[in-house]
Amino acid sequence: MKKHSLLGDVQVAHTPFKGLDTLFKEFEKEPFTSLSFRKKFRAVNQKLLNLIKKEKEPCFLLPQVIDFIDRVNKAHILQEPYRFSSFEFWLNRFSNLTPQENLDIRSKIVGKKIPREEYHIYFPISMDKSFFGAHFVAAHASPDVDTTIASFWGWVDAFASRVAETQHHWSLPGPLPNSHFSLFFQNLFGPALLQSVARSASTLTLSAMDLVSQRDLAKIDITSDVCLLERDIHSKAIILVDEEGYFIGDWRSSDAEQVYYVSMLFASLIRWFESLIHRKLINVFAKKTIHLNDIKKALLPLFEAPLSSSELLESFSSKNITYVDDYLKKILFLEKGLETSFLELWEALDPLTDKSFSSFFGAFNNLFQPKIFDENECLVEDRPKIFALVEKIITRLDQLVFKTRAFIDKLSVRFRVKAEVLRVQDPIVSLKSDVEEIKAKIDSLNYITVVAEESAEKVAPIGVIHADDLKRSVLGTCSLRDFSNPHETKMASYLEVISVIDHHKIELQTSSAPCFHITDAQSSNTILAQLALELNNRYSMLGLDNKKIENDISKMKNKLKNTDDIKQLLRLLQLKVNSLDIEKNYIHSNREFTEYYCFLYAILDDTDLLSKVSTRDVRCVAELLNRMKSLSIGQDTAIISLDDIPKDRDFAKKAASRILQHEDMYSIYKQIYEHKEQEMESILACCGNGNPSTFFIDTKEQNGCCRVGQSKIFPSNYALFNAWATKIRELWYNEAKKILEVKSHLDFHLHMISTIAGAKEVYKGLDSSAWDHEDEMWLFVPETQHAKERLIHFLNVFHTTPSMQNNTITVEFPGSNWQELSHIFEENFPEATQIETTHQGLPIAILRYKPGSLNSRKAQVSPFLPRLIN
Fold first, then answer.
1. Domain end (from 634, 660, 686)
2. Measuring CA to CA, which residue among 364, 322, 315, 367 is closest to residue 342?
3. How far apart are CA 695 and CA 150, in angstroms?
4. Average pLDDT value for residue range 455-465
5. 88 is in which domain, residue-wise?
6. How far is 507 from 512, CA to CA, in rounded Å?
7. Is the dihedral of CA 571, 576, 577, 582 positive or negative?
8. What pLDDT, in 10s, does the model give residues 694-719?
9. Domain check: are 148 and 175 in the same one?
C-alpha cells in the first residue's frame, strides 16, 4: 500500500506472481501445446496452485489470481474460457489437497486466515457445518452499487469459509454499466474481475458442474481384470475408461447380470460342443473293430455342422437365440451368425485364445495318422498309444474351452456385449447440463456420468451424479445481499436461502434457521461493514509489528485524559492480543483497506453522500475512515470522533456534516462524485438523442403490479435535464408501454427524478434550499379500472406522508387524458396545484416538489405502493 497524506490518494498496489512471463512461454510451446485439453486444464490449474503455495503468508492474492486467469484467456491457452470457478472446481476435486489445505489456499487468496467458525456471523456454518451442492451469493437484478459490493464481499467470505461442498458463485445479473463504479471496482482487483468471477445469468440454477462428485466412484481400465468389477460393483459407481482415460461406458450391477446371462448362453454352446466331442470319442472307440473311415465319419462332421444344428438351441427361447446370433455377428464378426460352422467359429476364436484351437486341432488330427492303423486302415490294438492320443485331445480341448471362457469373461468383451448385443446405451451429461436434463436422463438409474468433450470422438469422465443426491429437496443454497425476497430473483425451487443481509422488508420461508441481518440502515453495506469491523478487530494488526504496538501502549498509559485516549488504548491492547495469535491467523492490510474502501463507496452511494442516514450509518462511516487511516499510515489513529456531538434527534445529521467536511473524507468522495456528475451529463445527452442509456437502470418491479424507478441527478446536471426532459419522459413512457404489453399485471408505473448534492455542495455545507429548480415524479397507468384504482390508492395514502407535508407541490397533465387525471388528483391529492398545459403530450402525470425532499424510494415511496391482490 502506497502511503499518502490523504485517504483519497492511497493506492493499493498488487504485484503479479513472479515468473509469469517464463511460465507462459512454456504454455506456448511443446510439450504443453500437444497435450489434450484435459491435461492442459490440469497443468494450468496446478501451476496456479503452485504459485499460490509459494507466496508467503500473510498475503492477499485475489488480484494476482484474477491477473493469472486473465493472462490465460488472452493467450488462448485453453480451448474454452478459463474462470475463477474453473480453478475452484479443480481445487475441490482434483488437487488432492486435504480439507484443511484447501481452506489454507482459500485464505491466501482472500487475504484473511481466521478460524472457519468465525464466518458464522455471515453464514449458518457453526459446528463445522457445510451445505450440499453449490452456493450462490446473489445481487438483485439491475445491480446497483450497494448490492454489487455487498454480494461481492459475501462471495469472498463464502469462498473463504467454503460454505458449500462444491462451487461458490457470485451472481451479478446483467453486466454493470460502464461507469466510474465499474472502473473503481476493477482498479482494485484487475480489469478482468467481472469476466473472471461474476455470473451474469439472470437465473439461479445449478448445472452438472455444481453436482458432480467423485464420491463412491471407481474408474477402471477396460483392459483390467473383471474381478475388479465384482469387488466394487455393488458399492461404487463404475466408469470404464481406455488406456488414455477417456470414457467408454458405465458398468452397473444390472449390466453385469444381463451380460453374464448372454455370455452364458454362448458359453453353453461351447460346453455342448465339448461334451459332444467327448461322447463321440467314447462311442467311436467303444466299437470292437474301428476303421479309419469310421473315426472320420463320426468326428469330422462335428466341425462342419452349423451351430444352428445343436439340439441345445431347442431349449432356447427366440429371444435367447437372437442374443446368441447377435453375439456371433457383433462380437466375433461372424456374419452368418448361427449358420456359422463350428470349424469357422473355432477359427475365429483361435487368434483370440492364444491359438488354443490350432493346438487342439493338431492333437485331434493325430487320430488320423497311419502309424496307429494297419494296412487295412483298421485301428491297431495299442491301448497305451491310443489313450495317450485321446488324453492329449481331451487336454487340449479343455484348454481350448478354458481359453474361450477367459475370452468371454474379458471386461472389454463383456462391455461390447452390453453395447452391441444388448444395445444398452449409457446416458451422459456435460458439465453445463442443467438439473432438468440430468433428471430426465438419469431416469431410474442410480447414477449418471458427467463428461467433458475433448473431440468429436473422445470425452473424458469428470465424475458422477448420484440419483440419491438428486432426490434431495435442497440441491444448493443461496445468500442474498441487499434484497431478501426470493421473488425478486429467478431462483430455482431446489435452492434454499441460508443467509440474508438487507435493509428492506422481507418475505421469506426456509426449512432451517438461516443467518439474518436485517436493519433499517440506509445501506446494506453499513450492516456488512459493521460485521466485518467486529470480526476484523479480533485478528487485524493494522500492518503494525509487535514492537510498535508495545511502544504505543507504553506511551498511552500516561495519556488517558479523555474518552478518545481510553478508546485508543483499548484498540492497542486488542492489537497486542491479536499479535499473540499472528502465527495462526491474520488479515492482510491490503485486504482490510480494500474491503473498507468498498463498503465506504457503497454507503456514500446509497445514502446520497450521507444526505439520508441513521445513527448507525454515520457511526459506521466514522469507524471505517479511522480504520482506513490507521492502515494507510501504519499507526493506530482516529481522525474522526463523534463523542462530543449531542445524542439528540439531529445527531446523525450533525455527524454526517462533520464527516463530509473532513479533508480525508472529501479526498475520497470528490473524485467519485465529480466523475458521477460528468457521467450523468453523458447519460442525459444519450437520452436526449433518443439513444439507449443507463438513466432508467435503477428500476424495480414491486408488489406484483408496480414498476418503480429512480434517477438521481446533481444540481449541475439540472439545466441539461430540463432541456431534454420531454424527450426523456417519452423514452420512459414508451418503455412502460412495452413492459405492459408483455407483463399486463405491471399496470402502475412511477419514476422519480431526485436531485442529490454534489461533492462541492456537500463539502461547503450547502443544502437543497440553495437549488432553484424542482424534482419530479412521473406517474402512468393504462386505461383500465384496476390500474386507476391503484393510482387512487397510492395518491390517497402518499399525499399524507411527511415528505409531502410543508412542501410546494404542483402537478401537470400533458396528455389528452388530463380531465380524468385531474379529477383523480382533486379527489385524492388536493395539495397538488394543477398546472395548465396544451394537453397534447404524454398521458401521464408529472408531480413536482422541492428538490431533495423526496430522495429515498425505499423509505418514502415503496411503503405506500399499491399491491396486486390475486
1. 660
2. 364
3. 22
4. 91
5. 1-112
6. 15
7. positive
8. 899 889 899 999 999 999 999 999 99
9. yes
